[in-house]
Specification:
Blueprint (H helix, E strand, L loop, with lengths): L1 H9 L4 H15 L4 H6 L2 H9 L1 H6 L37 E8 L2 E9 L4 E10 L9 E13 L7 E7 L9 E11 L2 E10 L42 E10 L4 E7 L5 H6 L8 E10 L2 E8 L3 E10 L34 H17 L2 E8 L3 E8 L5 H15 L6 E8 L2 E9 H7 L5 H8 L1 E4 L17 E15 L2 E18 L2 E13 L18 H7 L3 E11 L5 E9 L4 E10 L6 E13 L7 E16 L4 E9 L5 E10 L5 E9 L3 H4 L5 E9 H5 L6 E7 L15 H7 L2 H6 L7
Parallel strand pairs: 14-15
Antiparallel strand pairs: 1-2, 1-12, 2-3, 3-4, 4-5, 5-6, 6-7, 7-8, 8-9, 9-10, 10-11, 11-12, 13-14, 15-16, 16-17, 18-19, 19-20, 20-21, 21-22, 22-23, 23-24, 24-25, 25-26, 26-27, 27-28, 28-29, 29-30
Helix pairs in contact: 2-4, 7-8
Length: 746
């Protein structure tokens, strides 16, 4: 459904139904605002008002500017002028990070262009002082912006936006804005704002003609903040804003605007000065994706910002720096019928030995190799290459060098943690013929067969063919804690000594010991949570756990039935909990759908993170559904019980690019009342997955995932256990193999 909705929105039509569906889902999900949202049917009326714009858009051809020369990011981190937004949108996949400073206001902004028309923003702000008499405000806010119509030869682009729609409403406002380029280098913008964007030059809301609900806007926010309130959107007075942007040179963009934001709260507290609605700015391009901005604001102040752009489609390193594999070895036709090696154990063992050594030379591991007269089955473990297709392509070329000429069929079984995941069947003659053929990548994919791997237990019968059982490493670690009320970012930096010992291909003992060198997580304020302190005692764990055992576990991975994968992990599972965790995943090799179940029984660890345990124990578990959409969107729904004993669900949506970069968001709603949860009302956050292979150009199978929570609380907290199955299993299945097949000949 999500994929269809996004395609529908990008087509420019059906906006009314999309907005109605979004509102109805918010009403269903957020219990304590349900009644009010249902009563305020005028939100749907507003959708009718704006739904006509896309219909008009199709009457005119879109502009053909390769990229808007006037696009820049405003003080809120969204495409805009200075304070005010524009209707322009960034390139799909653009991730913009900016730091802004003026007067007593500091903002850090992140904006991601999710689809060609839809963008989302996260903002962390400090206003000092914010309260009359002193005291700073640290505020988190989220925005959404959707371009209703692209710019045409005579028609402006049109966008609608929600500013600070999940937060404490400090910056809460909505807008409808249009932007028109008179030339590729000169653009005019005009818009209508509500809420914060109607605090100067306001007049009666024109939407009141549709419904008297729009007359009055509720002030402040309810509960602990962090709750969407659709009943406020587009209500109260409205005001006009507008401005111009002119690309004077390739590096200099000049901007001027009339702002409808009077900064009343900031001027009342003395954080900022304001005497004029006119703002002026200059944007200077330092490099392709780096710019600095200077501003004269509100007739009183000087401001500055720095904006860094990154797009996963344009990685810092193109290609890779891994060694090239050997070329395909083409057999002499006369050798096809030579079966003498079947009676010669020395030749057979020599082929096995050569295959094992050659694969290791490329960073791959041979778990098993089975040979018969005309076919070979290789069980291949890939710990190096991010794309499984690259590992399979390299293994196929190795087999043309090391196997007897009579073997025509290669069956390459991708394995991980001793679990056979998928089997790719190739004909040796195809590998020989297509390596240098135009269109050879597509052709060999068309001839390959990708199916479920044989369900068997791998063994290490021949010691000479085993991969190393023991591995260890010493590396720095960095632990981050965000948005503590007294400190926006806290961090611990230290050294981690980790080790793995494989008792069998599917049984591993793992452990890690940490020694902190410097940091301030231990200085976090004492938890005030009324729930079990399953996460909010992080400061105590940091202060007493030095050195600490980060984890010490034994894990078993299996294939209990066709299309099923299993994991059982026992021991000190993470920094705060020890116990046992079991997982079962159903994932057909050619399916985009997967279903999983996880059950855990854990006890809380002592603060020193050694071997002791506290009294608190809990059984947790979730049923999970995963779906991989064709358009790069991944969704995951988890329903079950969390560490504090609360029950509910977590929805995660991620945008994945072909090179492995992912940007996403999640939200968790449980039966914990918003007031009991504490500040933020419910758990939510952003997810960033960065593949080191693409970032640095060197092969690396393991990405780094950063979770940026709006605030870490005890409600909705889940166990952090290593080795969860879905992400690793899907990498070796058909959908991912096909999408990464361009690296087969790499």
């Amino acid at each position: 459904m999500i994929g269809n909705v996004l395609k529908w929105m990008d087509s420019g039509g059906g906006v009314y139904k999309v907005i109605r569906d979004v509102q109805s889902r918010m009403v269903f999900s957020i219990k304590n605002i349900a009644k009010r949202s249902l009563q305020n049917s005028s939100v749907i009326t507003l959708a009718c008002f704006i739904a006509s714009a896309p219909a008009i858009a199709d009457e005119y051809p879109p502009m053909t500017f390769e990229r808007s020369k006037t696009l820049s990011y405003n003080l809120f981190g969204v495409p805009g002028l200075i304070d005010m937004p524009t209707a322009e949108v960034a390139r799909e996949g653009d991730l913009a990070a900016s730091v802004v400073r003026f007067g007593g206001t500091t903002r850090t902004n992140l904006t991601f262009q999710v689809t060609p028309r839809l963008s989302g923003s996260f903002r962390y702000s400090k206003i000092d002082p914010y309260y009359v008499g002193g005291g700073a405000l640290y505020d988190r806010s989220f925005d959404l912006k959707y371009q209703l119509a692209e710019e045409g030869n005579w028609r402006p682009s049109i966008a609608i936006g929600l500013q600070d729609f999940i937060g404490t409403s400090v910056y809460s406002g909505e807008y409808l804005v249009a932007t028109k380029h008179l030339t590729p280098s000169f653009a005019l913008t005009g818009g209508l704002g509500w809420g914060r964007l109607a605090s100067y030059g306001a007049f009666s809301n024109p939407l009141s003609a549709l419904d008297d609900h729009f007359d009055i806007r509720a002030e402040g926010f309810e509960g602990k903040g962090g709750e969407p309130d659709p009943g406020r959107w587009f209500t109260g007075d409205a005001a006009f804003f507008g401005g111009v942007a002119w690309r004077a040179t390739d590096k200099i963009l000049l901007k001027a605007e009339y702002s409808s934001d009077d900064f009343d709260s900031e001027t009342s507290s003395g954080a900022n000065d304001w005497s004029s609605p006119l703002n002026f700015g200059v944007d200077y391009q330092l490099a392709k994706d780096l710019s600095v901005q200077g501003y004269f604001l509100h007739g009183e102040e000087i401001g500055a910002s720095v904006t860094l752009l990154f797009n996963p489609k344009d990685p810092p390193v193109y290609g890779g720096i891994e060694a090239a594999p050997p070329p395909v070895a083409v057999r002499p036709a006369i050798s096809y019928a030579d079966l003498g090696w079947l009676e010669d154990s020395v030749r057979s063992q020599d082929s096995t030995r050569k295959t094992h050594a050659a694969l290791q030379g490329l960073g791959l591991e041979m778990e098993e190799l089975h040979l018969d007269a005309h076919s070979a089955t290789l069980y291949l473990r890939n710990d190096k290459y991010g794309a499984s297709a690259e590992a399979i392509g390299r293994a196929a070329r190795i087999l043309t060098h090391t196997l007897p000429a009579s073997i025509e069929t290669f069956q390459i079984v991708a394995t991980d943690n001793g679990q056979p995941r998928s089997m790719v069947t190739l004909q040796r003659s195809d590998v020989e013929d297509l390596e240098l053929s135009p269109g050879g990548t597509e052709e060999i994919l068309a001839r390959a067969r990708i199916e479920e791997a044989p369900r068997k237990s791998l063994t290490w019968d021949n010691p000479a063919e085993q991969r190393p059982r023991f591995s260890w490493g010493l590396a720095p670690y960095l632990s981050l804690s965000y948005f503590d009320p007294d400190q926006p970012v806290r961090a611990d930096l230290g050294l981690e000594l980790s080790a793995d010992y494989w008792l069998a291909p599917n049984i591993v003992v793992s452990g890690a010991v940490r020694k902190r060198l410097v940091g301030n997580i231990e200085d976090m304020r004492e938890s005030n949570s009324v729930l079990e302190h399953v996460r909010t005692d992080a400061g105590l764990y940091a202060s007493e756990g030095d050195p600490s055992i980060a984890n010490l576990t034994i894990a078993h991975f299996g294939r209990p039935a066709p299309q099923f994968y299993s994991r059982v992990t026992f021991g000190y599972l993470e920094t705060m909990f020890a116990g046992i965790s079991g997982e079962l995943l159903w994932k057909p090799v050619d399916s985009r759908l997967a279903l999983g179940a996880e059950v855990n029984y854990v006890k809380q660890r002592d603060y020193d993170q050694l071997f002791g345990l506290q009294d608190y124990e809990v059984a947790t578990g979730h049923l999970s559904a995963y779906y991989d959409f064709e358009n790069g969107f991944l969704t995951q729904l988890d329903v079950g019980r969390y560490l504090a004993g609360d029950t509910g669900a977590t929805l995660t949506v991620e945008r994945e690019f072909k090179n492995g970069f992912k940007v996403g968001a999640y939200a968790t709603l449980t039966d914990v009342p918003f007031d009991d949860f504490g500040e933020g009302s419910f758990d939510k956050g952003l997810l960033f997955t960065v593949p080191f292979e693409v970032l640095f150009g060197s092969p690396n199978r393991q990405p780094s995932t950063i979770t940026l929570r709006s605030l870490a609380r005890d409600g909705g907290a889940r166990l952090n256990v290593a080795g969860r199955l879905y992400e690793s299993v899907r990498k070796d299945h058909k959908v991912e193999l096909v999408e990464s097949w361009g690296k087969f000949w790499r």
